[in-house]
Amino acid sequence: MARKKQQVNNDELEKNQEVWQFQKEAELVLSFGLTRIVEYQTPLMQEWLDVQPPEFNVVEQFIFEDKYKEALTQIAGWSEEDLKMKFIAYIIDLGNLKAGNGLVTFFDKITEATVEGMKLKVKADFMMAKGLLNLLQVPYFHFHEYKPELNPTGEPMAQLLQSFLIAQVKNKNAQLPLYGVSMVGKHWTFIIMEGKTYCVSDTFSCTKKDDLLKIIAILRKFRWLLDTRLRAAYEQ
After folding, report:
1. Does 61 fall in a domain?
2. Residue 137: is it exposed, middle or buried by C-beta count within 10 angstroms (0-12/13-18/19+)?
């Protein structure tokens, strides 16, 4: 009985714990001893970015051309919600990041955890995870974006790193790789975190057709990696 009461007290303590606010990538690097790799690509990043142009069916080709032209002419004037509804949702769909077979996807999903004594809480613009309905069990993939170019209240990379740190706690294994995307305006960057090291790819512009095709191919490659190898490792 005393043990149960102690558990309740601990839960209540964590619930009322102050949330740490990190707005800058550098703040997270210093606070959690992270290492940022940009000078070279790690083996996992090399594998992820090694893609061929995606093969579209007739419907997918129409959606791709339509959304590419729309972004090319309109993205400069889009709000965050415009960007999400008019473009990102379609690119995620073309990238095969779809729900089903125990996979769930979320927009604007809040996750939180205590990492090294600090409570972190962040809202992912898009997340893919093992789960059921609105229940998140094992996080796999995170996407953070801002429009316009930089938001004075925070950086998408800072949001992404917090999501990774929270996911490591939820997955109960900090060594499993975590995959994600950071988007600033029209620029997409891919990130893989392993332990306390994260590798950052070169930047791709979604208003360049060849880059947008590669963005979609990279998303599809992640789904293939998830289905063939990563999911089993995450869930064992």
Report:
1. no
2. middle
pLDDT at 74 over 80: yes
* Contact indicator for 186, 26 with CB cutoff of 8 Å: no
Count of the separate structural domains present in the chain:
1
Check: CB of residue 189 under 8 Å from CB of residue 36: no
Helix (H/G/I), strand (E/B), else coil: 86: helix
Q: By residue range, what is the domain housing residue 101?
A: 27-52+79-235
Q: CB of 157 within 8 A of CB of 24?
A: no
Element (H, E) at 212: helix 209-225
Contacts of residue 216, Cβ cutoff 8 Å, sequence gap at least 6: 54, 64, 91, 94, 95
List pLDDT tens digits, range 103-146.
Answer: 888 888 888 999 999 999 988 888 888 877 667 777 878 888 76
